[in-house]
Every structure is written in C-alpha cells, then in structure tokens.
Amino acid sequence: MSDETGTPSNDLDVNKIATELDNVATALTRLSDGTYWTDEVTGEELPAEVLAADPTRRRLS
Looking at the whole model, is its pTM more than 0.85? Predict the structure, then answer.
C-alpha cells in the first residue's frame, strides 16, 4: 500500500514508538534512583495500581 506521494506507507508510528522508549528509559532511571513510586511534581506516592496500569506513569494527574 502506498501513500499519496507513492511512498510505501508504514503502519508503524516511529515518533510514538520513540516516545514510548523514552518513557521506559525514564521509568528505569527513576527505578534506579529510588523515585519510581513518587509523583515527580508533588512528591506524593504513586499507588501500585496506577503503576500496574501504566508502568511509565510519572504523575497522579
């Protein structure tokens, strides 16, 4: 399948994948630093349920 320019289309969203990889790297750094379970702005604890649903989450809101 090609796009309007005749270039083969790619179903992968490279920018989205790059953003997700950056988020994973940040989560791993936070885990290593001991701040993974903490909201990075307020300092409040991030509940385990929140992180289970989205392991790269950095804020409650």
Answer: no
